[in-house]
Amino acid sequence: MLDDLPIKFATPADVPALVTLVNSAYRGEQSMQGWTTEAHLLGGQRTDAAALLDLLAPAEATMLLCTTADKQLCGSVYLQLQDDALYMGMLSVAPNQQARGIGKRLLQAAEAHAHQHVRTRMRITVISVRTELIAWYERHGYHPTGETEPFPTDTRFGIPRQPLELLVMEKELE
After folding, report:
1. Contact 97/76 with Cβ under 8 angstroms?
2. What is the pLDDT along the chain (174 residues), one digit of tens a residue?
3. Domains contained in the chain, CATH given
């Protein structure tokens, strides 16, 4: 069933729909319909069109999109090639589509992308207090590296309601 959900590469024309999807998955009233909300941790938006266009600009970066059978955007993930790793971020699933395997489908597509580009590790950062999300990644083979990164201070990523840091997690690929 999940294999029926097509995956494609994002283009600049996809950015308006991506802004809506990502913000709905993480912030605001709509995000509370799903389990990935960060609304209790951060106010404001998760991203905007300018930020997404900046992310897509480097040649080593892309976003994968997942659509339903009727071509509706239901998920996305940002990928960037780094040395021997593929950095994965902003994994987003529409709140009304969560818990149906779309995140897992995108995770598999991201790992396939890593293999295609001869990367041996996946690398992610997760807000350190998102225990349910960290547990989800651990169930999919990711583990904390012991490293942390400061949470971005640029308010276009949101306004923290408490001090936050990012936990670095990795997965070795077979």
Report:
1. no
2. 455 778 999 999 999 999 999 988 888 677 677 777 777 888 787 888 988 999 999 999 999 999 888 888 999 999 999 988 999 999 999 888 888 889 999 999 999 999 999 999 999 999 999 999 999 999 999 999 999 999 888 777 788 888 999 999 999 998
3. 2-122 (3.40.630.30)
Q: Where are the beta strands (DSSP E) in 1-84?
A: 7-9, 42-43, 61-67, 73-82
Question: Which run of H or E residues covers position 31?
Answer: helix 28-31
pTM over 0.85: yes
Ordered DSSP codes for 142-174: -EEEEEEEEPP--GGG-EESS--EEEEEEEE--
Order of strands, sheet of 73-82, starting from the edge strand that comes earlier in the sequence: 7-9, 61-67, 73-82, 85-93, 121-127, 165-172, 143-150
**How many residues can be counted in the chain?**
174
